[in-house]
Amino acid sequence: MRALVVDDSRFIRNYLHSLFTQHGVECVEAVDGKQGLACLREAGPFSVALVDWNMPVMSGYEMLQAARADHSLDATRIVMVTTEAENDHIEAALLAGADEYIVKPFDEGGLFDKLRMAGVNEL
Amino acid sequence: MDDLTREFLLESQEGLDRMERALTDLETRPGDAQLLADIFRSVHTIKGTTGFLGFSRLESLSHAGENLLGLLRDGKLAANADIISGLLSLMDMLRGVLRSIETTDGEGESEAQDSAMIERLERLQTGRASVAVAVPVLAQGAVAAPVRPVRPHKPRAPRKRPSHPLPDTPQGSPPPGFPEEAGPSREAEESPREPEPEPRPVPAVAAPSLPARPTSDPTGEVQPPSSPGTADSTLRVDVELLNRMMNLVGELVLTRNQILQTASADPGFALLGRRLDMVTADLRESVMKARMQPVSHVFSRFPRLVRDLALGLEKKVRLEMEGQETELDKSLLEAIRDPLTHSIRNAVDHGIETPAVRLAAGKPAEGVVRLRACHEGSHVIVEVHDDGAGMSLDRIRRKAVERQLVTPQRAEQMNEREILQLIFLPGFSTAEAVTSVSGRGVGMDVVRTNVEKIGGKVDVESHAGKGSILRLRIPLTLAIIPALIVRSRSQNFAVPQTALTELVHLSAGETDSRIERLENAALYRLRGHLLPLVFLDRLLQQSPRPSDAPCDIAILNADGRRYGLVVDGLADPEEIVVKPLAAVLREIGYYAGATILGNGEMALILNPGAIAQNANVSLSSETEEALSGDKNGARQDYLLVEAGSRRAALPLETVVRIERITRSRIERAGSRPVLRFEGALLPLDDAAADFIDSGDDPEAQITVVVCRDGRRHVGMTVSQVLDVTGGSQLQEAGSGFAAEGITLLHEKVTSIVSLSSIPPLENAVDGGPAESAFSLEEPR
């Protein structure tokens, strides 16, 4: 299975990368929403995309909207992974088509639980 | 420390560096949405990652900062000096915690400090009441965006950001297109700048309106970015590793030198040798390049420094920086950090005047400190320029006399340049200049010592009312230096050429008579000045040389001390690779390193400064020595020559060499006599002496003085070299200006040869009558 990690923090990308690789998941990384969207379209298919909210160039929320507007990407689960913890944000993301919402910080168990809840069955 | 933590520290430090730059920029552009978004993100990223590692101090600090920054970014609060100062101190604190994690693996504890900081940041948030109307940050992004409901702010609410409204269009509606193009970018205020140092090339994405995506690969094998960010085209390398590589390359250079010297007769071997030579040179250059860093690494902290200083002194100062991309060896870059910081402190504290004074002087209230870096040959020049009042020569003079660095009489006689040099004397600026800003017990002497330690030079220029310039001249690298190889009791030693000013040879009979003794000290009289002598054989307790044996004196200038080092003989100058010394040798204190010479022999590199100190060469005598030579202002040393029946003077600094040649060596280019010198043709000026065409004995000896004129060399035939002597420019009667071309030497008016009037060779080849430098001047 393949996962896309979209986050402007190198730390988060490396962290997720190491978690995924340990579980035999191929991990592709992008540094902002625009690059993330490009990866979804050009380097797919991905089982799941983990998307940060606050990023330069294009935010995760914008990326989510754009991705959900593109039906060729419907098979990819999109999970927001962010420090934004208010209900407003969660609600907005879920309405825009996010499959799950993970608040940073998270641990390995929590992450994979959430991913399974989002319907990532290959894990 | 695990890799993740290290990664976190690196990323956070980078973020804080960016934040520092952005904060100082914010001062001039307080409403800049991009800057605010940038700063917000730096802190936001730290907050977002600390939770993973359990750094609770960082988390609570960055959380408080994020709340304040969120208000600024969303335009609910306008940035002002208080807020910026608050954020800068927050940044310092975050840096402190990061440092503590780095060194002790723990965040350290300081609860009182933390809560004071958090309280301060919260207080700043409420400051928005007074600036209720926010800067219209959303200008460009707000066009098509749903109206952002600005909620009344609840004090101490956990999140201060406005909620994102739900999208107007239900999910699955027609594609809104690229948000970036469509305009309604919810985070349009976010910077388009990449947070990564090097933006990774994004797989080309066509806008949705374009039907074809030229880059789509039919096999779907578009290389996805596997690890973007720093991994793209740059790599972090441990400095230790680089040092080791540099050492190995040094070894290779030495081995190459030896191989080339053992050249075999086999032509194939010579070819291989040349190839080895080239490859080694390339490799050496690449490794040296890898050690280079742009000066912006050091410069980047100065905007903050200048800002804080100016605020504290109630001055208005703008810092302009130029040539930040100029690269310098990392170790040198570290070495100039403190001297530069001190120089900038000085420029702001002592250079730039207060706004009132500036206005009164007809200058803009805001002063400018310009920091400029550029390459000049194998050196990097860093200039600190301020447009302040310049240095007061009178004050420097007075202070130097008060501190008994010079006698009042001497101070009166000094010219402007010499007076400016006084500020570099130890003891000049330590005590008096204790303002809260500059006065830290370090003076310009420390700046000079630090810069000279790395083979650099410091120079200062000042223009009354217009400002002053401090110029640092730094070698590009320390790893390979030019050195003169000297011998003492059949051992080789390398003397760094930066310390070498001139060489004196004493032949067998002269030694006793030319070296003077005063009590126990040996002295040499160099053009009228007494120089202390250090005998290398005695210093190193080698077997003593017979007192009347011929010797060479290397005149050295190091750490403000000038002395002659007496050695048995000189070998060639060489580019040497500096090798670190074993601790045992380092402790002796006379050596700066070791090297292997081209012939395979080992040589220790002398440390001229340490030798002077150990041998008790005093500073003050040097100072007096240097100063007493120039009592009459514009004095210069001249080589006094006799050419035919005339006497003439050549500025000594232009003289490269004095050669005795046989007439047969002189060739002709057109009608001009020329001499082959170091692989180039040298135009000869013979008009005065008229040796070349008179007489026809091909074996007759002719003396040629080779001089440097700008970038070329020219030669002059002379009948005799008379003396080297100091002379002062004559004043043109009535005008008060120095007369061109004549000087007073030994009480006699003597014409100075104007080298530039010797025409270049091309003209001579044309056959035009060559004008002689001498023809214009008659003996007076």
List the helices and strands and how they pair.
The complex is a heterodimer of chains A (about 120) and B (about 775).
Chain A: E1 2-6, H1 10-22, E2 26-30, H2 33-42, E3 48-51, H3 60-69, E4 77-82, H4 87-95, E5 100-103, H5 108-117
Parallel strand pairs in A: 1-2, 1-3, 3-4, 4-5
Chain B: H1 3-28, H2 33-53, H3 56-73, H4 81-104, H5 111-126, H6 179-182, H7 239-261, H8 267-290, E1 292-294, H9 296-299, H10 302-313, E2 317-322, E3 327-329, H11 330-351, H12 355-360, E4 367-376, E5 379-386, H13 393-402, H14 408-413, H15 416-421, H16 444-453, E6 457-463, E7 467-475, E8 480-488, E9 491-496, E10 500-506, H17 510-514, E11 515-518, E12 521-526, E13 529-535, H18 536-539, E14 551-558, E15 561-567, E16 569-577, H19 583-588, E17 591-596, E18 602-606, H20 608-614, H21 619-628, E19 635-643, E20 646-651, E21 655-662, E22 667-669, E23 672-677, E24 680-685, E25 701-709, E26 712-718, E27 720-731, E28 738-745, E29 748-752, H22 761-765
Parallel strand pairs in B: 2-4, 9-18, 13-15, 20-29, 24-26
Antiparallel strand pairs in B: 1-3, 4-5, 5-7, 6-7, 8-9, 8-16, 10-14, 11-12, 12-13, 14-15, 17-18, 19-20, 19-27, 21-25, 22-23, 23-24, 25-26, 27-28, 28-29
As for the number of domains of chain B, it is: 5
Contiguous uncertain segments of 5+ residues of chain A: none
- State the helical fraction of chain A: 40-55%
3D shape of chain B: globular
CATH superfamily of the largest domain in chain B: Histidine kinase-like ATPase, C-terminal domain
CATH superfamily of chain A: Response regulator
Listing every helix as H and every strand as E from the N terminus to the C terminus, the arrangement of chain A reads: EHEHEHEHEH
Helix content of chain B: 25-40%
In what range is the share of β-strand residues of chain B? 25-35%
Assembly of the depicted chains:
heterodimer
Per CATH, which architecture of chain A? 3-Layer(aba) Sandwich
Mean pLDDT of chain B: 73
The number of E-state strands of chain A comes to: 5
Look up the CATH topology of the largest domain in chain B. Answer: Heat Shock Protein 90
- End-to-end separation of chain B: 81 Å
